[in-house]
Design goal:
It is flat and about 90 Å long. Residues 1-9, 16-32, 72-119 and 398-414 have low confidence and may be disordered. The chain is 20% helix and 31% strand. The protein has a six-stranded antiparallel beta barrel with strand order 1-4-5-8-7-6. A six-stranded antiparallel β-barrel has the order 9-10-11-14-13-12. Strands 16, 17, 18, 19, 20 and 21 form a six-stranded antiparallel sheet that branches. Strand 27 (490-497) and strand 28 form a beta hairpin. The protein has helices at 5-23, 54-60, 89-92, 140-143, 279-292, 309-315, 335-338, 358-368, 409-416, 425-431, 450-453, 473-485, and strands at residues 64-70, 102-103, 108-109, 122-131, 135-138, 148-152, 158-167, 172-177, 199-204, 212-223, 233-236, 248-250, 256-264, 274-278, 298-299, 302-305, 325-330, 346-350, 353-354, 373-380, 383-390, 392-393, 418-422, 440-445, 461-465, 468-469, 490-497, 500-507. Helix 9 (409-416) crosses helix 12. The chain has twelve helices and 28 strands. The chain is α+β, with helices and mostly antiparallel strands and 509 residues long.
């Protein structure tokens, strides 16, 4: 076959075309025509770091206060697993290794008092005013077990504080002070719109020396540091100073988006990892403390644990069905027991919402509240079933005294200056009261009253009033009124404090 110059050129062009196609280029093309995605920063507008946070700090600092709590209990960061209402796996997931690294970050000072001084350590923390009338938010662990709480304002004014309510499970507390006039206050913002990377300001008032401010960014959202069943922390890198526990975390508009609560500290110092309770969680809790003095949560009455592959296989759960939490035990007399739940049941859904983790169930039960009927979807005997459950009220709730006593309760509140609560399991743990002690817990003693003068204090247990044993606050109120109606000059209490027992006569009037 004769190859002409023209046919050779044609064949060469075809060959070049084939090579070009194979390698994805045109030998004569000036540049690639493939579509290249834009860089990740294409839609960002260049913004500079704020020149100064001075205006924000100046505006919000007057609402930040120092809190000194005398007699506050030395409470660990984690509570004893054996006391957890849903079982040991609820908080730790079987791993307690983080416990040794997390530290509360308020200063404690221990001392040995003279015999005529009431013993107890002093806790120092921060807080912030949320109402011009004098309502103050702080951490529960700052004031836990205290018999005297003093709030120092930004201008140095010191005011005695009364406990309105506290919630150990979210580590929040609400105090009330009385001032000559209205007080500067801060407001909760919308932490749900806070994004990782947003600027934040952590402000506190440690040691009553005046406000301190640090800045940083939100490092993460939804952190679970295994401190409780409702962990949902904002993680921040703004340095948190000692004494700032309970202080506010502000955004750049001056709204509170969190309550500074903990730091990650493997070496005892600040390593730039702090945690704040988000305002979306703190706000509703504070509202309940303001209204009730405690948080009303639902109660199911089970101990639960996670499901691993071996447990799933043993229960006959197929891979596609492996979800839910395992009921380890059912509390006698609980709503779960009344509904027929059994150890070995797997709770897979709560009122139609899938349950994948222990936290899912814990939050769902708490949020549902008491006295509500819900439907549980269970796995039992290699098949699904349902149970209707009437949730109860959490029995481990210690309410602070009502801010305005009325009716029979006013007899103990106004005449003697005592605020009382049932002696529950949570109260026993909080105040280190043994299981053999039966009576009524003193949760508050008004200053400048006969009860205070006689040395009664928060954490005491009233065993008897006169000749009668008491088990509920109403029992104390009834006996106090009976003594007053008999025109007695005083009423006699038998009081337990630690291992000691003594009788105390508290005069009327």
């Amino acid at each position: 076959m004769k190859i002409t110059r023209q046919s050779f050129r044609a064949r060469a062009a075809v060959s070049a075309f084939a090579i070009a196609v194979a390698f994805g280029v045109w030998w004569f093309a000036p540049a690639s025509s493939a579509v290249v995605p834009p860089p990740v920063d294409e839609n960002l507008t260049a913004t500079a770091t704020p020149a100064s946070f001075a205006d924000v700090v100046e505006a919000v600092k007057p609402a930040v206060v120092n809190i000194s709590a005398v007699g506050a209990a030395q409470m660990p960061f984690m509570e004893a697993p054996g006391r957890r209402p849903f079982g040991p796996d609820q908080y730790f997931g079987g791993d307690q290794s983080l416990e040794q690294f997390f530290r509360r970050f308020f200063e404690r000072q221990s001392y040995t008092p003279a015999e005529d001084v009431r013993p107890g350590p002093r806790a120092m923390g921060s807080g912030f005013i949320i109402d011009p009338s004098g309502l103050v938010v702080t951490n529960h662990h700052v004031i836990a077990g205290a018999f005297e709480i003093v709030v120092t304002l930004n201008d140095g004014t010191q005011l005695d504080a009364e406990l309105v309510g506290t919630d150990a499970k979210t580590d929040l507390a609400l105090l009330e002070v009385e001032a000559a006039g209205t007080l500067p206050y801060a407001t909760f913002g919308d932490s749900d719109t806070t994004r990782v990377g947003d600027w934040v300001l952590a402000i506190g008032n440690p040691f009553g020396l005046g406000g301190t401010a640090t800045t940083g960014i939100v490092s993460a959202r939804g952190r679970d540091i295994q401190s409780g069943p409702f962990d949902d922390f904002l993680q921040i890198d703004a340095p948190i100073n000692k004494g700032n526990s309970g202080g506010p975390l502000f955004d750049v508009t001056g709204q509170v988006i969190g309550v500074n609560t903990a730091i990650f500290s493997p070496n005892g110092g600040n390593v730039g990892i702090g945690f704040a309770i988000p305002a979306s969680q703190a706000g509703p809790i504070v509202d309940q403390l303001r209204e009730h003095g405690h948080v009303e949560r639902g109660w199911l009455g089970v101990q639960i644990q996670s499901i691993d592959d071996d447990i799933a296989a043993g229960l006959g759960l197929k891979e596609a069905e492996v979800r839910g939490v395992l009921v380890a035990s059912v509390v006698d007399g609980s709503p779960a027991a009344a509904a027929g739940l059994e150890a070995g049941d797997v709770i897979m859904a709560f009122d139609g919402e899938a349950i994948d983790t222990i936290r899912d169930l814990t939050r769902a039960v708490a949020a549902a509240g008491p006295n509500r009927e819900i439907v549980l979807e269970l796995w039992r005997g290699e098949q699904t079933t349902t149970r209707h459950v009437q949730l109860g009220a959490n029995p481990d709730v210690v309410a602070a005294a009502p801010r305005k006593a009325s009716g029979a309760d006013a007899a103990s509140e106004s005449e003697l200056g005592l605020s009382l609560a049932p002696l529950t399991a949570d109260a026993r743990q909080r105040y280190a009261i043994d299981d053999e002690t039966a009576g009524v817990l003193v949760v508050g003693v008004a200053r400048d009253t006969a009860a205070a003068a006689k040395g009664l204090r928060r954490g005491d247990v009233i065993l008897r009033v006169g000749p009668e044993a008491v088990a509920q606050p109403a029992d104390v109120v009834r006996q106090v009124r009976a003594a007053r109606d008999d025109d007695r000059a005083s009423v006699v209490f038998q009081v337990a404090r630690g291992d000691s027992r003594q009788f105390v006569a508290v005069p009327f009037g």
